[in-house]
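Lab notebook, page 48
Experiment: co-folding of the full assembly
Goal: obtain a model of how the components sit together before planning crosslinking
Operator: M.T.
Materials (sequences as entered):
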Amino acid sequence: MGRLPLRRLPEVAGGTIAAVSGARAARRSGRLSVVLEPWIYLSPALVLLALVMFVPLIVGFTYAFQDIRLLQPFAGGWVGTAHFETLLFRDRIFRTALVNTAWWTFGSVALQFVFGLGLALLLNRPFLGKRFVQAVVFLPWAVPTFLSGLTFAWLLNPVIGPFPHWLFALGILEEPYSILGNPSLAMWGPIIANVWFGIPFFAITLLAALQAIPGEMYESAAIDGATPWQAFVNVTLPYIAPMIAITVLLRTIWISNFADLIIVMTNGGPANATQILPSYIFTTAYRRLDFGYASAVAMVLLLLLVLYAVLLHRLRKTFRSTA
Amino acid sequence: MRKTLLTAAVALCAGSAAATAQTISLVEVITSPPRTEHLRAMVAEFEAANPGVTVEITSLPWGQAFERLATMVQGGNIPDVVEMPDRWLALYANNGALVDLTPHMEQWEGTAELTDATKEFGSVIPGQTHMIPYGFYLRAMFWNKKLFEEAGLDRAPETMQEFYDYSAQIAELDGKYGYCLRGGPGATNGYIMMMLNFLGENRYFNEDGTSTLDDPAAIEGLQFIVDMYQNGLVPRDSVSWGFNEIVAGFYSGTCAMLDQDPDALIAIKERMPEDDFAVAPMPLGPGGKSFPTIGYAGWSIFEAAEDKDLAFDLVAHLSSREMNLEWSKFVGVIPIHVGAEQDPFFTGPNFEGWFTQLNDDRWEPTSMPTFLEEFGYFADVMSIQSGQEALLGQRSAEEVAGEWAAYLSDAYQKWQAAQ
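Observation: model returned without errors.
Model output:
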């Protein structure tokens, strides 16, 4: 508000223009340096960020509009929006992969979250050997995904592994076969492996949030006569809600970009039943050698993830303002 | 002063370049630790014979080898010598990345001893040679004698009809199946063999440049496999089986027949008594002929190699009679020199199936059209994805064969136009 009269001043009092404008210039240059100073300090980091993040992003974006083959990258030239037209109107694998990506991501995140939260709640109470159990529970997170993918693939193989025989004995399967070969069940294979792999992440982060809840809150809830369920819903959940929101957001983006387990376990098969967008991008780029088209698919995935992040951010804001 | 400094610097650079020029980089792409060790031993002999020369071996795991090598080449980190599988040869040769070995081979005394197939398969561009193969992978039919006996059978099937009937008979045993079908990675060979067996000709393209794969007879071949799958003669999971799964399926006695290359013999011998299985030639099609696929890999030199003569010396060393014989036995391929099959190692009953196919006119080993740049995508992605769709009944054999034929026809016509 204070700026407004200062700006008007020269027009009102003509004689003092020179003096005032001189003072203003001095003040402005002072203000400018004050404004610029932090940016100067930040510039190395900003330049680095631009180099490692935005340059590849922009290059990838331009690839999506060109015909780029791996061994003769720029022989094809610009093709306009041809890739996107094929993608949206003629590519049935893209559509399958899009639906599968949603299924893979939300299936994995939901199960990882539920089991991770349960594990965190269990670990949040004192018991004998807690430190040891904590260390063991976090182990899956440290196993290379390639290895866990292969292990699960063999566990699900009826010739070598036990899973199909157990599922058969439980009456879930009509004969002991590998679910990875059944298009309607195949996605469960990588999801199971991913849940096993991802539970520790939720458990670690949510446990940290749980430990930050002051004990008095539970005491006063108990004095008010709250049942354990009411204490959970009215004390625990509101306290860890921000952590839940941020971990779910992060994991969703990671998992929808995470094709390692699928590539190792099913390679997108059978008949594209487990093909997700990242595995489709990989296949297009490195098997069909079509980097242009792969970039176009990647741009669509990026756009969807940005939309998702914005949506979740909005939801958090409204949630916070109503709470 | 400045000039002398500059000259000194240049001299220094030149000196260090001369000192390091005698390093040959070699990339192997079908890697396993014992294989690398064997290769190192072969290379060590070359280094001993050429003092001052060192060979640096880079080992890429097969599963990622294609994209890793392509990225290396694209990024300018180009090796001198590379282990080149048949699949990629056309891609690199047509893009001018490989040295034409013809003039080198004219000078080399070892050339005369190579089999005709070896010289023929190293060439994807007429009149030029871009690879010296180190051995051949040829499909033949492994069969489990014990399971056959249990099903009341005493010999391997000789025709496609017998192959189907025997499979059905074995599948009646509880939890057992006739054939270890490969529907996952590497499924292409199986489809192609069956399609050609029914077609009765070792031909992928007609005179007019269109593919033969949508010929009604070829479609019948694809339908044959689909029927085997849908009628339960093969394991239900086999729709996604790759090499490891089919081999495990065979040695565990889940499925009684397996079509494989000699390299599977190594894994199977370790886990099965040698008397429990045998290797027969592939069954004959309705026309009395059979077309087992032949594959190969070999050594190529990149155009970027600084000292091409030295690189060729290394390739010549690896391809010499003694080196290649040991390598073939170790890797499980059919050797490349005339008369090498007389070695006692290859004359045993285990190898009979393969050598019958090589020596009897009823079998014609077929090389898939790997000279097409687009073939890699066809083999690694398209044939597997749509083959699975056919097996699972999501699309008809006719529709799938039509898709393959259309893709290969386009690729072939593009190739023809470029010749």
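Interpretation: DSSP finds 13 helices and no strands in chain A.
Next step: discuss with group before ordering constructs.
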